[in-house]
Amino acid sequence: MGGGFEHFILINSLVCKERCSYVFLRIEGDSYNRLVKILRIRNPRKGEKLRRARFVREASVREVRQMMENMVKGFLWERNFNVKVSRSQLDVERGILTVEYVADKPISDIRGLGASVAQFLHLRVEFVFIPRQKYAAKVGWLGRCGLELCCHVWLKNPPSITQDMARRQYLFAAPDKLTGACGRLLCCLAYEMPFYESMATKVPKLNSIINTDRGKAKVVEVNVVAGYYVLKYEDGKKEKRTIEGTP
After folding, report:
1. Which of 233, 228, 223, 169 is nearest to 196 (CA)?
2. Contact 224, 201 (CB under 8 A)
3. Disulfide engineering: 133 pairs with which of 182, 204, 208, 217, CB 3.0-4.6 Å?
4. Kind plus residue range of the DSSP H or E element containing 37
5. Measured distance between the N- and C-terminal CA atoms of the chain, rounded to whole angstroms
6. Residues 231, 134: Cα–Cα separation, whole Å
């Protein structure tokens, strides 16, 4: 597989359980077996000089599919496609290799790659886009909390998550710290939002200026989980205050 067309003289007979198209041959002079696709068998022409080959065994569909999938991965890496191949399926009868790739969004240029790979593998190659979220839900990785992903265990319709939710929960970390295995913002933000909405009525906004019994102060830190916020006065002194209604 992965080469051009060539004729060989078969020095023994083909032994296949069914009509086989993929077989392993040991070509004279080689120290390894080659996977080849048989297109047709004919009698040698007079005076024709061909390399000799010995039939080793019939190749299974799994072996052929795995080798083709590895070749496709090589093409993807060579062309700098930032995708993951989740799985592939081979229809030997129809001559179609279906490759599922995982990415943030469909890649239009990948169709052109399919034509190039098809010429190399001598069959039709179809690429199918799988969203990262769908793939993560299917595989079931562990989340940042150490438990299996909610979308894999029970969550069938993930909620819509926005950057504003993270801001209102006082989360200002780098985006990669707030994203899950699927590349989206963590679904946890939606579950915790009601708590932060209720607390917003009890705590001043971060970086706001408020009037206190000691004069004006700036809110420099808010920690609603721990139940406190920190004020900084004009003289530079800081004060830690407890949020009302928290232990």
Report:
1. 169
2. no
3. 182
4. strand 34-37
5. 70
6. 44
Write phi, then psi, for 109 (nearest 5 degrees).
Answer: -65, -15
The pLDDT value given to residue 200: 81
Q: Which residues contact 73 (CB under 8 A, 6 or more apart)?
A: 85
Give the dihedral of Cα atoms 173, 176, 182, 183; nearest 10 deg: 100
What residue type is 98 in one-letter code?
T
pTM over 0.85: no
Q: Interhelix angle for 61-78 vs 110-121, to 10°?
A: 130
Query: Mind listing the pLDDT tens digit for each residue in 161-187?
Result: 888 888 888 777 666 678 887 777 888
137 by DSSP, 3-state: which? helix
The structure tokens listed for 104 are: 């943030």
Q: What is the largest CA-CA distance in the chain?
A: 109
Q: Is the distance from CB of 174 to CB of 195 less than 8 angstroms?
A: no
Asked if residue 188 has pLDDT above 70, the reply is yes
Distance CA 53, CA 36 (A): 11
Distance CA 212, CA 229 (A): 14
Domain boundaries, the chain: 8-58, 62-134, 140-199, 209-242
